[in-house]
Design goal:
Shape: elongated
Helix content: over 70%
Order of helices and strands: HHHHH
Number of domains: 2
Largest sheet: none
Strand content: under 5%
Structural class: mainly alpha
Length: about 120
């Protein structure tokens, strides 16, 4: 997908930055990624306040907001598709249980073979 120019929205982005809006919020409004927005802000030297412009401190609010948004979307998908979620959980449980059973069975058989070898049966 070709990158669209953010230059027409420069004044709007500048206003949002001065209002203290986060990169994640602005990126969502413009339907772009937060990384693209950060590159644009660096290119046009946009910062919320001039005293933080010189520091290279990382603001984790955007990443945290993105994680919260992703978790909310995942929970929404689980709630919307209850049967699919339940069947998936059942499949995972059956798979793990079967691996445990097969591992225990193989361990028991191995020990019985060792015992039979030691007794001279085999």
């Amino acid at each position: 997908m070709p990158r669209r120019s953010l230059k027409p929205q420069l004044n709007q982005i500048r206003a949002w930055v001065h209002q203290g809006r986060t990169d994640a919020w602005i990126a969502h409004q413009l339907e772009i990624t937060a990384t693209e927005l950060r590159e644009f802000r660096k290119q046009y030297d946009l910062s919320a306040d001039d005293e933080n412009a010189g520091t290279s401190e990382i603001d984790l609010r955007d990443e945290i907001e993105a994680e919260i948004e992703a978790a909310a979307a995942a929970m929404g998908a689980l709630a919307a598709h209850k049967l699919r979620s339940a069947l998936t959980l059942l499949g995972v449980l059956v798979g793990v249980f079967s691996i445990i059973v097969v591992t225990c069975w193989a361990s028991t058989k191995r020990e019985s073979v060792y015992t039979e070898c030691a007794n001279g049966v085999i």
